[in-house]
Amino acid sequence: MTHFSCTGLAKVLLPMLLLASSGAASATAYGYAYTSVFGLVISNPTGSTSLLSNIDLSRTTATLNGSSVIRGGSNEIDAPQATRGAVGKGQNDFTQQGFGNASYARGDAQIVTSQIPPFPPGSTSTHTVNVAETFLAGNGSADASGRNGSSTAMSVNFVVGEPGATLAFQFQALPYMQLYLDALAGTGSAATTNIALTFTIIDENGQIVFNWAPDGSLGSGILGGTEQADDANLNTGYAQSPLTSGSVFTYDPSGCGSPTGTGIGTTCGGQYSAVTDNLLAGSYTLVLNMLNSSELAYVPTATPMPLPGTLPLLALGLAMLAGLTRRR
Fold it and tell me: Would you state the torsion angle of the CA atoms of residues 150, 156, 162, 168, taken in this order, to the nearest 10 degrees?
């Protein structure tokens, strides 16, 4: 019959006690922000305009525990995916990677088609898509962003018999966000996701004459124009702190569900449209800016509670140690 010494038995019981006391509970934080804008057509209902120049921008960032990367920039239409950690999604795969076993951060952005200038040649509408996704398993920090933008310089020509010229914007959009911070999150923990989409026209003196930030409320979020359709808020965000942790937040105002496939489908999304006030003769710059971001910071509580399944294990270990002490 084999006999265990006190030292030997303690070595066997110690891992059991550590496992039980830790509860094998994993600290978890997650964020996903996605926007697809498609069928964007900019028209000129009255007066006339002429294109002078155009600069497109596609940029991505990713940071995980202080290690960062920035990809893309001006004069790019498809920024390489920015990744840190255990990213399993490839370039231009905008679907959710979701909760994983290891921490990661990724940002991706693509201008699929562009009306100004036509890309590919012959394109008559703009389609752009962004995603930012972050996941933390354990303490740490992560953030990511995907951004697409376009700066178009144009000349508005005064036409006799017209008070000026107008520009009209019409498109569909699918916004989607998910956010989670688990109940073990301690002071200093936070999780946020954000989406933003704005159209701005600036005159040759640097003054903003038109700004449109769709916010889901017809008639608000617009300066220097009239809004005709505004299905949902495209300039909003979610935030969780330890006070609000423990449940998944989902933003899906169009009811389309989480993006599937490559995430650039055009079968579901809300309607948006607006027209500017009259633009007098002169030179202007039209700026389209679209941004998605996700930021996480996780600080676990100092004394995490054991999971229910580990309580019997903890009791068994303590009982065995108590019995050993009595025999000695």
Answer: 0
Nearest to 227 by CA among 172, 271, 274: 274
Partnered with residue 43 across adjacent β-strands are 168
First to last CA, the chain: 19
Whole-angstrom Cα distance, residue 30 to residue 260? 19
DSSP characters for 73-103? EET-SSPPPEEEES----TT--S---S-SS-
Cα 272 to Cα 209, 214, 258, 296, distances in angstroms: 20, 8, 20, 31
Q: Of 308, 295, 270, 42, nearest to 176 (Cα)?
A: 270
In sequence order, the 6+-apart residues with CB closer than 8 A to the CB of 320 are 9, 13
Sort strands 222-223 and 48-64 into parallel, antiparallel or unpaired. Answer: unpaired
pLDDT digits (tens, 9 = 90+) for 102-148: 999 999 999 999 998 899 999 999 999 999 999 999 899 999 999 88
**Residue 205 burial (10 A CB sphere; 0-12, 13-18, 19+):** exposed
* Whole-model pTM over 0.70: yes
pLDDT at 327 over 70: no
Q: Is 308 exposed, middle or buried (0-12, 13-18, 19+ CB in 10 A)?
A: exposed
Query: How is residue 50 written in tokens?
Result: 């002429």
Q: SS3 sequence, 287-300?
A: EEEEEEEEEEEECE
* CA-wise closest residue to 180 among 301, 27, 68: 27
How far is 286 from 277, CA to CA, in rounded Å?
A: 14
